[in-house]
Every structure is written in structure tokens, then in C-alpha cells.
Design brief:
The chain has helices spanning 2-18, 25-31, 33-36, 41-57, 90-100, 106-121, 130-134, 148-157, 228-238, 257-262, 284-289, 301-316, and strands at residues 23-24, 63-66, 72-75, 161-165, 174-186, 189-196, 201-206, 210-216, 243-252, 265-268, 273-281, 295-299. With 317 residues, the protein is α+β, with helices and mostly antiparallel strands.
């Protein structure tokens, strides 16, 4: 079965690379034996779509062209599928090798390893990995949320999605219809930025609050995807990184290192608590709730009220 599929994919790739004009599904079905043996049109269409997606996953750039008669044709231009000369020096090669080690998530680990193999086959120099030899630390980007992989693929393929999302101050999740733009990691948490169709506005969702499965939906995006830098700034703001003022909190001694690392000032009270002044931006209330009884908000009053409301919602749930 595996050999038959590999042969079918190879034949399809050769057809798409060897043509000078787009080939229709009908022409491809008549040129590849495995497609001729497909019992029905539906079986062939399902097989062809899977094979086309598999070839794209392997890196083949397949163009879809519509002719004057309205028929859809496919081809893979050689100039679009030829890797340009690799001119990386040893330091650049080492940096790529280090970047490939960052991902713990299985799908990305395989993609990174495969990319390195292709680059080395094309002439990228093999660099001595001094980092691995001399360092006891190894970089990692942890990905624990089940929603990460389907959202990553949806962002790549520009596919709308639906999922159930529980806000920090809500006891029950709500369904969201989102056009996903990008995934960003802040303070060890993953966030999705995208367009919320029901609210008609840009929104940011923390992946750990997505419940159930992420389901893909057919259709094109209705909102324009902004520049990636703008999206990162939005995630930064929603994650509480952009501070507009300061807050004063009490923190139990020996607890809350992430808060201490961001503090503008720390004062020891001598009663088992320290007083911190920290930057206050959007999302700080949700972050403080994560430290539970180790944090008490002194001021401002609106931040204290938001934290209390979130804690009460958690207690009710």
C-alpha cells in the first residue's frame, strides 16, 4: 500500500513538472494508472486532492490555473521548484541547526529536520555544533495545547476555524468563528491572533483556554490579513506586555519569580510579604490570577476589582 501511494505521488509529480501547460483533472486521470483504476469520480477526486496536498506538504509548488473555458488546470513550474544556490557560511549554518532544535512539537520537529537535510543536500556546509558540545542548556519552545497544530495549519492555509473558547472570567465556553492570522508565544503562553467574525473585530485568543476540537470551515477570509509586525504588537498588547501605568501589589516572599523579574521596585515588608511596583497593561489581571493566594493587589482599585471578579468566576466554576 505504501509503495503504491509513493509510486502514485511520483507519477503525479512527474506529470505536473513535465507539462508546459496546466493539466486538468480529466487529463491527469487518463495519464496515471492508479487514477484510471479509481472506481468512481468521487473516489478519484478524493484521491487526487489527498495526493495534491501530500505533494505540497513535501514542498512541491503546485499552481492552480483557470483557462478560458472555466476548467481548472494544475502544473508545477520547474523554476518555482528549483532551490537557488546555497551560500551560507559556517556561522549561518550553525544558527539554522540551532533553530531546528528549538521545537519540541513532533510535527514541527520533523519539518525542521527535513528542511535541514534538503539544505545540506543542496550544499549547506556542515558546521561543528559547539553549542551542543559546550552547553548544558538546550533551547525549547514547549507546545502542550492540542489546538496548536490545527491552528498552525489553518494559519498557513488561510482556512477559517471554529472552536469553543472559555474566557478567564467566564464559567462556560462560547463558540468562536475565527479567521486565524498567526500564532505568537508570550511569557510561555501561546496566543492566536485573528478576525472574530461574529464580533467583526480583531481578537486574540490564548490557546490554553480553547476547549474541545478546532474545526476547519470552508470559504475564504472576509477580512484583510494585516502585516505580521502589526499582529505581533496586538498580541503583545493583549498579553499584557504593553504597559500604560503601574500597579502596586503584595507578593508572598519566595513566590512569583516572573512578577519579580518585571518589577520596577521590590520592597521587603518583613511579614512574609514583599511589595512590588509592576507595569500595568491589558491582561495583567488575568496574569495575576494565575498566582492565586500568593498575590494581593493594593492599587489601582480597578485592577483589584478585575482580579477579584476573575477569582470569583473561577471559584463558581
Amino acid at each position: 500500500m505504501a509503495i503504491a501511494k509513493a509510486e502514485r505521488l511520483m507519477n503525479l509529480a512527474l506529470c505536473l513538472l513535465g507539462t508546459r501547460r496546466p493539466l486538468s483533472k480529466r487529463e491527469l486521470r487518463g495519464s496515471i494508472e492508479a487514477y484510471l483504476e479509481a472506481g468512481t469520480d468521487d473516489s478519484f477526486n478524493r484521491m487526487f486532492e489527498r495526493d495534491k496536498d501530500d505533494l505540497r506538504e513535501l514542498g512541491l509548488v503546485i499552481e492552480t490555473v483557470e483557462n478560458l473555458d472555466g476548467d481548472t488546470g494544475y502544473l508545477a513550474r520547474r523554476d518555482s521548484n528549483r532551490l537557488p544556490p546555497i551560500t551560507l557560511d559556517a556561522e549561518e549554518a550553525a544558527a539554522l541547526g540551532l533553530a531546528a532544535k528549538v521545537w519540541q512539537q513532533a510535527r514541527l520537529a520533523g519539518a525542521a529536520s527535513g528542511a535541514l537535510q534538503k539544505l545540506r543536500a543542496a550544499g549547506m556546509p556542515e558546521a561543528e555544533d559547539d553549542y551542543e558540545v559546550h552547553s548544558a542548556l538546550e533551547p525549547r519552545i514547549p507546545v502542550h495545547e492540542a489546538a496548536f497544530e490545527p491552528l498552525m495549519l489553518a494559519c498557513r492555509d488561510r482556512r477559517p476555524v471554529t472552536f469553543d473558547y472559555r474566557k478567564a472570567n467566564s464559567a462556560r465556553p462560547e463558540q468562536r468563528q475565527v479567521e486565524p492570522w498567526t500564532l505568537e508565544c508570550w511569557r510561555g503562553h501561546w496566543y492566536l491572533a485573528g478576525w472574530d467574525r461574529e464580533r467583526g473585530a480583531e481578537r486574540v485568543f490564548r490557546l490554553s483556554r480553547i476547549t474541545g476540537k478546532v474545526r476547519s470551515r470552508a470559504g475564504a477570509f472576509t477580512a484583510e490579513v494585516p502585516d505580521v509586525v502589526t499582529v505581533r504588537e496586538t498580541v503583545e498588547s493583549w498579553a499584557g506586555e504593553t504597559a500604560t501605568r503601574t500597579a502596586r501589589i503584595r507578593l508572598r516572599a519566595g513566590a512569583g519569580y516572573p512578577l519579580r523579574s518585571r518589577a520596577i521596585s521590590v520592597t521587603e515588608r518583613g511579614d512574609g510579604w514583599d511589595e512590588l511596583e509592576i507595569p500595568y497593561g491589558h491582561g495583567l489581571d488575568a496574569w495575576l490570577v494565575e498566582f492565586g493566594p500568593d498575590v494581593v493587589v493594593e492599587e489601582p482599585a480597578d485592577l483589584r476589582a478585575d482580579v477579584v471578579d476573575r477569582l470569583r468566576a473561577v471559584a463558581k466554576n
